[in-house]
Amino acid sequence: MVGVFGRSLSFPNKHPNRPPMSHHIRSISLPCRSHPLVSQIKDEISELKTWSTKPDNRTSSWLCDGLSRLKDVHDSLHEILHLPQTQDSLRNQHEWVETLLEDFLRFVDVFGIFQTSVMTLKEEQFAAKVAIRKKDDAKIASYLKSRKRLAKEMLKLVSAIRCIGQYQVPPPMLASVVDSDLAGVVTDAVRVTMLVTVALFNGISTAFAPRKSSWMGLRLSKKDNRVKFEEGIQEFQQVGVDSLWGFRKKGDEQVKVVLMKMQNLEDCICEIEFASEKVFRSLITTRVSLLNTLTQ
Q1: Domain locations in the chain as residue ranges
Q2: Segments of 58-116 assigned E as strands
């Protein structure tokens, strides 16, 4: 029996060098996203900028709220500075970081001096209340002179930080989204620190200065933006010079009214001292964290 075999046909390969067909998967690269802490501090900075644009009710509570918000900004910045990607970015920007360290050192210095000045003011405030009860015009006059000195000291502190923030962000920090965001929040943190610091120092200076109103313009950026604080803190202004003269001619009820205002002022001073001390400590922490980016 003869088997039947099917005929096999073969055709020449017209494209012998063509590689086998394959499916190509398109590569999609997404831009690096910033850490959630960066978004958080951006919101905190934005809220603080909004706070600074609403000075209609310039009370000690308003000022303490600004100080509290500023502490939150520096707490967030402290955490950001501990991120590995942050340390990698700043480690290569030695000159810029050194400039930032100088700026934060100035902030720490002026807040440290402010803490000492506030402690002295509290002591003088207590002595003034005793003098008011005794209707001792000579000691009250001494208290008023101390307030003038404090007003001048506050203006000196403002002048001491006038040069802060006068620098350009290094071009390499703008090369990526992450580094650009980092440079932006650090720069903005310095600016809002300036805003709150000027509001604090100039608010007290304006209230205690001989004239009723004053303003201090500060260059906050290369665009020559200026911030004016034309009014002092309300509780400080309520105990004016006119109300502290001639106690020998005032009745007991008038003295009681002045003493109540003095007590209210003392309470406000204590609140400001407490809030500013927290900022002072947070500034130290931020500077240490910034220094660690160069040493670790």
Answers
A1: 58-167+179-295
A2: none
CB 201 within 8 A of CB 158: yes
**Distances 233 to 4, 128, 184 between C-alpha atoms, Å:** 112, 20, 31
List of residues 6+ apart from 64 with CB closer than 8 A: 271, 272, 275
Closest CA to 172 of 180, 182, 161: 180
- Let me know: does 64 contact 269? Beta carbons within 8 Å: no
Helix (H, G, I), strand (E, B) or coil at 112: helix
CB neighbour class for 179 (10 Å; exposed up to 12, middle 13-18, buried from 19): buried
CA 162 and chain centroid, separation: 15
Q: Indicate the residue type of 221.
A: S
Amino acid at 5: F
Single pTM value for the model: 0.80
- Over residues 60-99, the pLDDT tens digits come to 999 999 999 999 999 999 999 999 989 888 888 889 999 9
- For 170-218, the pLDDT digits (tens) are 887 777 777 888 889 999 999 999 999 999 999 999 999 875 444 444 4
- 294 burial via Cβ count (<10 Å: 0-12, 13-18, 19+): middle
- Determine the Cα–Cα distance for residues 178 and 38; give it in Å rounded to an integer: 9
- Per DSSP, helices labelled H in 162-218 are 177-208
